[in-house]
Amino acid sequence: MVSPNAGSKIMIQSYKHNGQFHRVWKNSVVLKGTESIIIGANDRTKVVESDGHSWVTREPAICYFDAKHWFNIIGMLRDDGIYYYCNLSSPFVYDEEARSLKYIDYDLDVKVFPDMTFNLLDEDEYEENKVLMHYPEEIHHILYQQLNVLIHWIRQGKGPFSPGFVDDWYEMYLTYH
Fold it and tell me: In what residue span(s) does the DUF402 domain sit (predicted)?
């Protein structure tokens, strides 16, 4: 698999299980790109929803995508600390021709606060889409197993939750910005 080069700009595209387009972040800078991990950053980036509605992100964010895990992690730098938004999703794929990172969003999200407490979000949306889009039982098991891995990372301060991770990558982003 080809990976994007550090300093290049890519789009981040999410889809739903049925293949329907969900959301796109128009402009993110790649800070690290390998076959297994992509770390990107964006700030005040245009986001377009499936219904055509668009909005602009409010703060700098460091985005962590892993080809082995069924989640991605966005660390948002705010005045009162780093907040994380974690999507339960398929592992990413990188489309070199389209210059875009793509994944399937599986509805469940975890919001992590600066004190590392967290909330599981959108369980009702997950249950609804599980039926509507016929999520296979295997996907259900994978997602809940990966949710446990994600919670372990949060509690242990691993990966993007480790002290300094978001700040260090943000400093790198500023060299490209």
Answer: 18-158
Output the six-digit token pair for 12.
């981040």
5's CB contacts (< 8 A; 6+ apart) are 30, 33
DSSP class of residue 78 equals: E
Helix (H) or strand (E) holding 153: helix 137-156
Per-residue pLDDT tens over the stretch 18-58: 999 999 999 999 999 999 999 999 999 999 999 999 999 99
Tell me which residues are annotated as active site.
23
Q: Which amino acid is at 26?
A: K
- Per-residue pLDDT reduced to its tens digit, 91-140: 999 999 999 999 999 999 999 999 999 999 999 999 999 999 999 999 99
Structure-token pair, residue 172: 């790198």
pTM: 0.96
